[in-house]
Design a protein that fits this description.
Alpha-Beta Plaits, DNA-binding, four-stranded antiparallel sheet, alpha+beta, single chain, TACO1_YebC_N, Arc Repressor Mutant, subunit A, YebC-like, 238 residues, transcription, 8 helices, DNA binding
Length: 238
Amino acid sequence: MGRKWNNIKEKKAAKDKNTSRVYAKFGREIYVAAKQGEPDPESNQALKVVLERAKTYSVPKTIIDRAIEKAKGGSEESYDELRYEGFGPNGSMIIVDALTNNVNRTAAEVRAAFKKNGGNMGVSGSVSYMFDATTVIGVEGKTADEVLELLMEADIDPRDILEEDETVIVYAEPDQFHEVQEAFINNGITEFNVAELTMLAQNDITLPEDAQEQFEKLLDALEDLEDVGQVYHNVDFG
């Protein structure tokens, strides 16, 4: 399991030139998570996960506070959580997660993004069976052996631990997110380079240069959609 997570994040950050768009998407995610339970991350685990991910993308506190206050204020604005699955060039696979207040609009936009960029939509389950829901948490200042030791002391058995540049990345079961995070916090580590619940492909593929260019255009088109929050795929950009 070697996704070179730091490289993926750096490339994504480089594409996110319009930070206001990124912040708006996080604002929506935070609002929805806060509405699903108590607007307090200590008692709302879904909200806590979103807030931790927002921190790794440097989302301003004002954006976070505004979304939570909106949820506290009893806003009737509602969103549906949707998942789309599809294929890009050369057998590449894509999962798209979206939050929308207009299902028909979002479905049409996602379908158009696939069609215009060499891909096609699949039916539910056509791609997701090749991905695993995974906790991914990355920290600096520790070696992989040190991280394994502190996790073992907390009685946590991760899927994998890898060193990527100066970051140690822990891959664990999706229900271990808070256990892994608490293990780090209890050892004085409170800053995370990565803190996400994500979908990781069971097997990555490498595309030839022309297909990779087309695939990147498809990713860009999907990630630029207002309603799309997360895009997962099985392509290794190296």
